[in-house]
Design goal:
Length: 149
């Protein structure tokens, strides 16, 4: 039982680290977002006889697609950090399991973290910890009867 708590604590720390890394890497498309905004706001002159540059279409594509990647990455980062918190509190088993499965798609750190989390979460002793870890009010204070640590 003590070993399981230690594994969950270590996993939760790595979830915080990977969540921050995901948030940082999700900021890379900001360069493309600024390029798209530049296409939308600037006027590109064309030479006579030359076809007109589809500036608005490029601007929209370079604005909308990076926004989707940035917001999706930040959402995954927040969900990863929340899953780390829930792992440390031994609550929301299904949420933690789903986030671990999603993280398996993000190589290399997410894959390693997701696989190790799934291995730990599949133990019967860890499932029992999650069943006992959730208090009815959602609060686990030091004097809570649901605090099994």
């Amino acid at each position: 039982m003590n070993k399981d708590l230690e594994h969950l604590k270590i996993l939760s720390i790595f979830y915080y680290v990977v969540g921050v890394l995901i948030a940082l890497f999700s900021c890379i498309p900001i360069i493309h977002l600024f390029m798209g905004l530049m296409f939308l706001t600037m006027d590109i002159p064309t030479k006579p006889g030359q076809p007109e540059f589809p500036q608005t279409a490029f601007g929209l594509a370079f604005t909308i697609i990076p926004l989707i990647f940035i917001l999706g990455g930040w959402t995954l980062a927040v969900m990863t950090i929340v899953a780390g918190r829930k792992l440390s509190k031994q609550t929301n088993y299904t949420f933690c399991f789903v986030i671990a499965a999603i993280l398996c798609a993000f190589m290399p750190f997410g894959t390693v973290l997701g696989v190790f989390t799934i291995i730990v979460l599949l133990r019967d002793s860890v499932k029992q910890l999650f069943e006992r870890g959730a208090s009815p009010s959602g609060f686990q204070g030091p004097n809570s009867p649901y605090n099994w640590k």
